[in-house]
Design a protein that fits this description.
Layout lengths: L2 H5 L4 E6 L2 H4 L3 H11 L4 E2 L13 H8 L1 E8 L7 H17 L2 E7 L3 H5 L10 E4 L3 E4 L13 E3 L8
Parallel strand pairs: 1-2, 1-3, 3-4, 4-7
Antiparallel strand pairs: 5-6
């Protein structure tokens, strides 16, 4: 184990990255409740974050202070500049801080993400206002993560 990971102090066990309009009141609320009931410390953004504003430093810091990031890819995940900026920071932390990343594919398939099928073509190059341009590796937007959890929409009604 590297020095960076062994000395890292984690405020949160899990950081949840998701598109609120797709999953907040369904899958994410169930996942959050189950993790919380298991005694796991979770960072989940709340609805006070305003649409269209820049991602907050608090959110980026929460990613850095987490041991695991669960990225929930959904149909409109890639249309959110916040989600994309979170994803870029999650990948940076995966590479630099050994953050563990678990992708969940909610009503989309891993191949939709991997092969840049709409709406995921924007994962590869996106601009956040005038701040900067992020480029994710075109071969794999989740940087080598090939396994994840696939959830189809029809499963949601049983939760």
């Amino acid at each position: 184990m590297s020095h960076a990971s062994s000395s890292k102090i984690c405020k949160y066990n899990v950081f949840l990255s998701f598109r609120g309009e797709d999953t907040r009141r369904t899958f994410v609320s169930h996942l959050h409740k189950a993790l919380e009931q298991s005694g796991i410390r979770i960072f989940k953004d709340d609805e006070r974050l305003e649409t269209g504003k820049s991602i907050s430093d608090e959110l980026l810091k929460a990613i850095e202070e987490s041991k695991i990031a669960i990225v929930i890819f959904s149909k409109s995940y890639a249309s959110s500049r916040w989600c994309l900026e979170e994803l870029a920071h999650i990948i940076k932390c995966k590479n630099e801080l050994e953050l563990i990343v678990i992708p969940v594919f909610y009503d989309v398939t891993p191949s939709d993400v991997r092969h840049q099928n709409p709406p995921f073509q924007s994962l590869y190059l996106f601009k956040i206002g005038v701040r900067s341009v992020y480029t994710l590796p075109s071969s794999d937007p989740i940087c080598g993560i090939t396994m994840g959890l696939l959830l189809l929409l029809y499963m949601n009604k049983y939760m």
